[in-house]
Every structure is written in structure tokens, then in C-alpha cells.
Amino acid sequence: xxxxIVEEKGKVxxxxxxxxxxxxxxxxxxxxxxxxxxxSVAINGVCLTVTSxxxxxxxxxxxxxxxxxxxxxxxxRGSTVNLERxxxxxxxxxxxxxxxxxxxxxxxxxxxxEDIALYVYIKVPHDELRYLTYKGSICVDGTSxxxxxxxxDGFVISLIPETQRATILGEKNQGDxxxxxYDMLAKYxxxxxxxxxxxxxxxxxxxxxxxxxxx
Length: 215
Fold this sequence. Notes:
Organism: Radiobacillus deserti
Subunit structure: Homotrimer.
Oligomer: single chain
Structural class: mainly beta
Mean pLDDT: 92
Keywords: Repeat, Riboflavin biosynthesis, Transferase
Largest sheet: 6 strands, antiparallel, barrel
Radius of gyration: 21 Å
Pfam family, one: Lum_binding
Function: Catalyzes the dismutation of two molecules of 6,7-dimethyl-8-ribityllumazine, resulting in the formation of riboflavin and 5-amino-6-(D-ribitylamino)uracil.
């Protein structure tokens, strides 16, 4: 579990690419502080497991499903990435609940500035707009953000100067792709409201009586 508060920006040191998988070694500093093999680290919002580490870097494997479902396949040697260790029970919770399981890869359609704010318009599938609401939470490349607008084919976020500096989102341009994870509370609520238990999906005599259809 993560919070979407990026701890630092790392850099891809080495990248070994197979047909549908990757092995990434990331140069970092802060996230290495208490790292052990088997720990989870979010790289651009994707939860991955540390397989080895040194005093200046760590290595993770990207499996085929993650390779296909996220933007990690677009990384190159020297790419900058957002990093966050799994949340600590004793730490502050400054963002929102983030699982590190990407829902969709979005495309940046437009980037513009208004005074000190940087606005980014991201395209996602139309049927997934149901997870978005004005001033609701969204996670983009591992960064917890607020939705400032919902359009017919996407949503708008606004980056404060600190987010522009501390994450890779300030470096993004039109046409770039980003990992998007919707608010898990919205997804759980949808599941709760739409789930139908076939075993209990029958009209009973007591229900007909309860709603006045029988005496």
C-alpha cells in the first residue's frame, strides 16, 4: 500500500529487456534507507518487488502482465522515474490510498500554465470516467493528485510548483503516456453496488409480501 507522495526521483541505470518483461536497476538514495530484499517500491505508480540492491541502486523485475498493462515498457536507460516505498504504519498519511496496481495507461493531450500552476489534460477510456469526480483523488505516475476537471474523454490535474519539482510530471509533454490508478474507494463502491449474488438473486414470497404485492 502506498500514499501517492513521491519520495524522490530515481534514474534508470540499466535496463534488460526481454520480449514481454524487464529487469530494471534504478539509481536512488532516499528509498534505499531501510530497504531489504522483498520490499515493495512503487516506480511511476507500479508496485514492484526489490530483488537486490547496493548502496546506490536497487533492482526489480517487471513481469509480462505489468509490462503490458503499464507504461514501464517505454522506459529507457537514463529515464527519470517517481519512487515511493510502501507506506509505514507509523508515518504520516499525506495522500490517499494507492495500491500500486495501474488501471490504465493514459495519454497527455494538453499541458498549459496558469500563473504558478501547471495543468495537464489526460485522456482515458470513456467508460472509466465513472471513477472520476471533480475534486476527487487520482494517482498519476505514482503521484496523489486532485481531479480539477472531468471531460468527455479524460480529466485535468493541476500541479503546484513543489509537485512540478519533486516528480516527473513537471517534465511531461503532450503525447507522453502516464500510469493512472483510480481511487480504490470508488472501485470498491462500484463493485458493492453492482454485484449480484446469483444464489440469492431470486424473488421470494416474503419479499413480495414485504413490498405489498401479496397479503
